[in-house]
Amino acid sequence: MQPGQQRLVVVSNRLPAAIKRDGDGWTVKAGAGGLVTALAPVLKNRGGVWIGWAGNSDPEMDVDSLLEDFSSSAGYDLYTVPLTKKEVDGYYFGFSNEIIWPLFHDLQTRCRFHPMYWRMFLDVNFKFAELVARKTTSDDYIWIQDYHLMHQAFFLKSMGVKRNLGFFLHIPFPTPDIFMKLPWRWKVIQALTEFDLVGFQTMQDRKNFTECLRRLMPETRVVGRGAVVSVDMGNRQFRLGAFPISIDFNQFSELAEQPEVVEESFKIKEALRHRKIILGVDRLDYTKGIPERIRSIQTLLRRYPELIGRINFVQIAVPSREEVDEYKELRIEIEQLVGRVNGEFSFPGWVPVHYHYKSFPPEELVAYYSAADIALVTPLRDGMNLVAKEYCACNVNEDGVLVLSEFAGAAAQLQKDAYLVNPYDMEGIAKALNRAFHWDKEERRGHMANLRDNIRKNNIYWWVDSFLNAGIAKSLGDFPEVDTLQFERG
Prior knowledge:
single chain; alpha/beta; Rossmann fold; nine-stranded mixed sheet; six-stranded parallel sheet; 19 helices; 17 strands; trehalose-phosphatase activity; glycosyltransferase; Glyco_trans_20
């Protein structure tokens, strides 16, 4: 790295690569998902750094050696924060997923406010901050990702380490009435105020945060209008912004037009005898509203019996946190509901609900998106929900319908052209699906064309640009690729 060169340093709970057991040895596999898609090109060959946990808690493993080859091919440096099983249990499964995740998704009855979780959360955040301090310089821009690492700025400043720090929260931020139930509410809010820029998915999330801030720190003043505002705390200032995350639109759209994907999409339609396909795609999680969705399909078939035999509901549930009891119970509940609905309505040659509990390769998932006439995206609460955007990007014929929960962050951006529903209202969802089934072709096309234009324009690179512009008045283009040949010649 050249002196004075500004690098982008991404810090997240997980690295963009995971170490998996392969027979008797270990192998490094590239991660997937929107964050990796968005940030890997920004870091590649630009002197970028990614800091995180490698997903393994074996203290004997030489993780750094395993990641060296991956770093070389990825074009940026990876540094791992080693975590013990006890730390993972307390910080990740405990504080992050049994307190913050349900609380911030308005499901506070699922929270377990164990003080040990809080102590472990602080210990692990301190561990991350130590590595960030060692592996970065004051010229770097440090971009912290998500709720697992809310104390990074607090600990770096307590060490006397000066860095330009941005934070982005990928999940919703709750209203004051819900947030105030957190026993460590003041400390969490105070830690977030130590960042130079705090980003949220929607303006509503930002508003919720400022209301919590005013309740806990009444002297706070919020100045400005628009997507990014300033917060004056008397002794210091920082900025707040709304930056809706997105997808690589062209990647999905082009994949949907690949001949093998088009063929696979046609096979799916053939297998279901060209009935109208309603599609749900989710990670298996209690925030996604899958049981409510299946009950909505049951309500649809009871209220509109003329649709019996004319539709198929396909629910793809990607396995998640399989070792957690709540998720095991959720899986059983969903399977029992599917059985009940199919038992009530099936006849020879037709089963209403097709349930897949597995991960699909990208090409096959895109084929399902392309085949679906209606996407039913009804989380009980979601920071954004990229499935809604992925479906639209893959709908290259522009004849699909997006039925979307009003409690998904994506609703704020897509509300004009999606059919918004209350995910708790089974009759309302049934009514929306019946209307979508009968919607005029031109009306469908007009709305889907608008949705696709919106997502194409506000894609994942726009998201990165808008955050960096607010954080350091720079964009992707301001992080030039390093001339690797020059270093080789030198």
